[in-house]
Amino acid sequence: MIKKMGKKILLVLLSLLLAALPGQGEETQTVQSRLTELGFLSPNNEDVAVAIENFQVANGLELTGGMDQATSDILFGEAAVSQKSFLQALAERYSSQKLSMNSMGEDVEKLQKALGELGYEIGVSDGVYGEATALAVQRFQTANGLYPTGEADAGVLYRLYEGEPVGWEEFLSRQFAKKGDSGQNVRTLQRRLRAIGYFDGECTASFGERTLRAVELFQRDNQLETTGEADQATLTLLFSASPEATKAENVLRLGDTGQQIRVVQTALTELGFYTGTINGNFDERTVTAVILFQIADGLEPDGTVDEALLQEMQAEDAPQIGESVEALENSLAGIGKNDLETVALAAEEMLGKAFAQQGDELFPGFAFVQYVYAVSGMAIYSPGQIMETESLLLSSSAQVRAGEIVAVERAEQSGTRMYFGVGLGEGKIAYVSADTGYVVSQDMAQMDFTGIYAWDFSNGS
């Protein structure tokens, strides 16, 4: 049933200003440290998402690539299988000697034939592990969610011979994308474009103007027909080992650090868009503040800062957040189901990543909600904006839809408390774990709560 819950919820939250969050002991292990301990993260493999996927393969879990509850339970449990144990088990069926450049023999020839049958260009299956074989293995790893080293270790052999390997053409066909598309294929495209310097924005899985320009620039640099579409010719070269790379100069983005970031944070603080610590780290909260400013100033909200944008922030007539409410709220006008799905995809992109919670004590989880909406091009500028909007008191967790803002009401020793997250659909929610500080997902049917509230800013279309 629909209720005007804003005032009630706000009063409950204000009364709990001093309530304690669930404990965050100094001894608590982080996802990265646990993956490192188990051997899935190392200097040769620093990609957390790939490490999570490899952990899931080793432990017989569903290959989601994210820190869902099942993965979290096994990861921090006593029964977690380490990479070493997994590879030792594989060694019983495969040679413990990995195949790499200059390897020779029947094992290499068998590998070459298997890759060739899946469409990975190998040339002659001559039993010699040369550059063509290394490139084919690298492509196989990319298409099958493995770290692309170009070496055929036991994990590659297991996926190739005993798993359900994805062929090269099948992989490419899944990646076809054009302006207006959205989904995992678009996110994979954006990740690859960003890795070689063509894409500066967030990987939101939405093919907009910025992605279009990145594809066109890549095509021009590589003497391809400039269509702006990720077609087969473009994708084949994009995921090869030798596309022409570029790098935007003097652009600040997520992950950057330094004094110039402090300058940006200071300017945004003075304008009211940034409320975090001025620490010189271009983190998610800084991205959110940048996007809110860009929306308020009528600019494309890509979350990056170049010299021109910094000058806009420091100008005497730069918009203050207090005078930008109408522009910010207009970013939510007319959003539909597809927009909410983009929000849900942005939330899924954050699974398994750390998210700072400082300053989020009164409205735990709000900053995360604000961030995933911001990178999807929509401004949530304050908790009050949510509270003043009509909410839906749900009778079942199954009613939670993808992209909705969700508040879970829990009874704790200190009293009733509400935690904010983003619906992923099918009764699941993405939120920041108070115990670990990492973004996780969970089936709400398995959560302990006394009430669920949801806010749907779409027009239902």
TrEMBL record:
- What InterPro entries is this protein classified in? Peptidoglycan-bd-like (IPR002477), PGBD-like_sf (IPR036365), PGBDSf (IPR036366)
Q: Which UniProt keywords apply?
A: Signal
Gene3D superfamilies listed in its UniProt record: PGBD-like superfamily/PGBD
Peptidoglycan binding-like domain: which residues?
24-75, 105-160, 182-238, 257-313
In terms of Pfam families, this protein maps to: PG_binding_1 (PF01471)
At the top level, the lineage of the source is Bacteria
Q: Which residues form the signal peptide?
A: 1-25
Q: What name does UniProt use for this protein? A: Peptidoglycan-binding protein
